[in-house]
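Notebook, p. 212. Picked up where the previous page left off. The plan for this session was modest: take the two constructs that came back from the sequencing core last week, fold each one, and keep the raw output in the notebook itself so nobody has to go hunting through shared drives later. Recording the first one now, exactly as returned: residue sequence, then the structure token string.
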Amino acid sequence: MKIFRHAVILLFIVCLILPLTAFGADKTKVAIIPFKINSPEKLDYLEGAIYDMIASRLSIDDNITVMERTTVVRALGKDYETATTVENAESIGRRLGADYVILGSLTKLGEAFSIDAKMFNVNKKEQSTAVFAQGSGLDALIPKINEFARNMNFKILGYIPKEGVAGYMGEQVENPNFIFATRDLMSKSDFRKSPFWNIQIKGVDVGDIDGDGVNECVEIDRNELWVYKRGKEEFELFATFKGRGANNFLSLDILDMNKNGKAEVFITNVDKGRLASFVIEYNATKKVFERIDKSIALFFRAFKLPGKETVMLCQRMMMDGSFYGGLHKVEIERGNYVAGLTVDLPEGTGIFGITLPADITGEGISTIARVAVDNHLQIRDMSGAVRWTNKDYWGGTINYFSTTEKEEKKPGGADVDVVSGDVYVAGRVLVTDLNHDNILEVLVPKNISKTMNLLPKFRLYETSEIYNLQWDGLNLSENWRSRLIEGYVADFQLKDVDSDGIDELVVAVLYSPEMTALIPAKSGVLIYELNF
């Protein structure tokens, strides 16, 4: 009897131990390789701080075990002092007995910093997730670490743990093309893309060009325009328009202003340093574009707010190439497109890189969102005062024109000096309400530069993202963003490209710029379905 009782007790203990052992064996082991710090300053302490930040965020869930830093350093041996790359991450992971290896670097020059981090799946021999982010001031580093940790948690667990709650099955991220920060606003879908085109794309828009009730997708580069219809293929070439060699198309906007059922195409164009914009319209009988107004000394840009009609605005240019005066509604007078009524905007507002006034903060006050010259995103009130800004870099553009002042006579007959310079054209920023909750959102691209905007005359953007932001009472906070796009976002739109009654996110991407005549540029268009 005693033997039987002991056997029962032993069996009970084994039953308790086995699940715990199995649970422990199923834990995912993560090794964090010490980050490489690149800076003229002595910032060695950041290497340990980055480890602690990542480790603490991954350890929230009991299903992940982060290996001790000393264990990792000891196992690395001589490799600890050398740059660790993705190429040898697999062998390091196997040496450590880890399922995942995290490695990266932090670069800091002055106040600007960039962090380049990657996570490698040892068993699948592939990179699982990565982040390249930049900002100003080390206080902006923590949100970047949080963002990377969320991505890592989702890749490992399939869900994002709620901070402080182990095993919490957080919100499931369904759409593989978008990363959600607060809530799932989008149903599962995929993206479509155009073929690669050997052009250096500068703008994209969508509208009914030929009046058949079906929208077309229109693109421009420096001095050419292409129209694509949707037929058997997603992009079937329908029409083209070619400008002069000296033309520099800066922006593209489409709107049926003359109400004839066919959308006019507004091209902001600079020719030898002077504004020479024009409006063209498709002649369905001749099957060609015709200029219906030309040599217009105005910048054009179309704007739309949720629930309101699209409006075409314009602005004049000063002799030095800067934006002059206020913004005006475009009006048609005797067949010509002219500056009409002035729009109420903060003094000194340029036509590009802004939104129309709207209640962005939900406080019943009209404000505008704006990407400033230094690429910081701002919210300004109608007096021009900055109500909010942050230290991240937003927008980012390689679209510019060179301007040369005309020679003018000084009193006495002397000529003034000829002055030239480059004027950069900020990209599009949109105000929208995609989930129809009556709370406005801001859509803005973020083109990512490894030069961290330190060299204004040298602009190279290799990757990009589109962000959906919303006011949370203190800041414009992220709702969602696109997956990393390998290329530079030249322009984007929220338009119904496939004429199904639902707007899509249409993104013009420059994958690689033109290097020489033998190495042309490579561009294309991405289309994301937004089903809310």
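Okay, moving on. Second construct, recorded in the same format:
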Amino acid sequence: METSKFRKRVPATTLLDPGIVVPAIGQAFVKLDPRTLAKNPVMFVLEMVTLLTTVLLVRDFIVGGQSIVFEFQIVMWLWFTVLFANLAEAVAEGRGKAQADALRKTRTDTRAKRILMPDNFEVFDGVPAEDLQAGDLVVCEPGDIIPGDGEVIEGIASVNEAAITGESAPVIRESGGDRSAVTGGTTVISDRIIVRITASPGSSFLDRMIDLVEGAERQKTPNEIALNILLVGLTIIFLFATATIPSYAAYAGGAISVVVLVALFVTLIPTTIGALLSAIGIAGMDRLVRFNVLAMSGRAVEAAGDVDTLLLDKTGTITFGNRLADEIVPVPDVSEHEAAEAAWLASDADETAEGRSIISLVRERYRVREPNLAADARFVEFSAMTRLSGVDIGSRKLRKGAIDSVLEFARKQTGQNVIPPAAFQAAVDRIARSGGTPLGLAENGRLLGVIHLKDVVKPDVKDRFAALRRMGIKTVMITGDNPVTAASIASEAGVDDFIAEATPEDKLRYIRNEQAQGRLIAMCGDGTNDAPALAQADVGVCMQSGTQAAREAGNMVDLDSNPTKLIEVVEIGKQLLMTRGALTTFSIANDVAKYFAIIPAMFAAFYPQLQVLNIMGLSTPQSAILSAIIFNALIIIALIPLALKGVKYRPIGAAALLRRNLLIYGAGGIVLPFIGIKAIDLAVTALHLA
């Protein structure tokens, strides 16, 4: 996954960072509270049976049992198993708390200038920010910290949002439109705005961020609940299976201690995935936050991993968003140099990105030197009304702009309709068909040529869309361009489908149609008109720079306001599901070796024929049981880094992914315990522990 291109809010902490591990060890003991463990049924059952064996150990110690040392070791390693499971969750939570502490440092004791009378914005009093309520109006002037989440209702200002996004470059916030939302904790750099507070104390965007990254608001996702139900079912089945074993031993004239039965039960139930399940979910949220994406729920992260269709805006996501000059096409009676020089002069007053790109093209490709302008030259700046820019130099009037505006300018100069030359019209049609934007170039009433503006497709998107296609994900481009232009860009970018001349209703209709066919949809947006589609989508990523309505409609917020990151969100969601599936496969598979260790040890004395199952050649029955319990505890610690870091993401299909999981984590889950238990048995025997 290409992650280097995105700035991370908090540097990735190492798994052995003492600042996280040491407090996590303490939290592992705090989490022994049965009320806490009850949220994890497998670990709760494990703690209950461990308490039972502890009571029996104390009893045997008092009455003088025969296997006190062996029982003590079993009980000790059972407690270690519970503690290691708690440690996995505590380390995952600790990484989130470190981010929450970094966010808290952005808070300051802010004073707000609350307006006293709604019809007079000049009269206000200073109050603590925490006293503000939704609906209050506040004045924010240069240097002021915006006291709470809200919407600009008057004015325009430059705002530093580094407290939220980590990006120091200021952004524009203004009343009306799609840039009216402001966030508490950000700073006004220039000008004056009136803000209507939209969040009550304790429910601001920053408050929600802190709660979410700390895990205080984390709820189990549907997949987690389903997997927990499966694990509970397996635990109940193995509980009944274990409870029947004493009758088999009694039938053969023997007996099995409760401690040994508990050891068998613990190795049968899926303790590995039960111990790591919560840590996997927390780590998934943590990875999103590190890429400055705030998920409002774990359900959204999971849905991202199951997405079937991606709806992507063309501008800024698939293309760079700024149309750049690609070529200048002169008409037959005009030289290339003359047309290029005229394009430079006509663009000199155009401060837009398109205007600057024309000058760059003329300088670099056509090798035209900067023209010397006469002192009486009068520039005509580009405006949305005229859609023209240019310069008047004496009797020469040079203009560049939209084709119809240039033709209208030429008509006014000549006093009659101007019929474009065939070559001029052919160039206009060719550029339009290719997905570009043609601009006319004229001097007085004479047409000089056509400038080709091209919305450049990002160089890496085609490969990334191909990777998504291999995973079975359909990509759909949304654009306001006409169908011909949209089809051209869609072909160049390699998307599967496109929606041309899209309206908010079109987006919503498309999402509903896809969902009606059982597909999950992800999209991103920032405007109020995107809000219905964001709310309808299974994964709705809103830009931090978007409106309040859009931010409330989505279930994720991208603090960098980078629409391309939607692809990373999907990849992180898939990595979460891959990690959970891989560790579930490993957890179930590694029980096989434990059966071969414990079953012969328990029954060899009563049923000598079962000794053939001791394929590992374990030294003694007690050594076999103790080795299996020790391995069961240590494998949790060994897998914590994988649970937190996640299985490496690979853009492959579901069938290939299943085969890979079965090969690596299924086969590995069977083979590794045989090696591990045998190695532990050798150590136990050498140390005379059993």
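Notes on construct two before I forget. Residues 68-104 form the longest helix (37 residues).
Flagging for discussion at group meeting.
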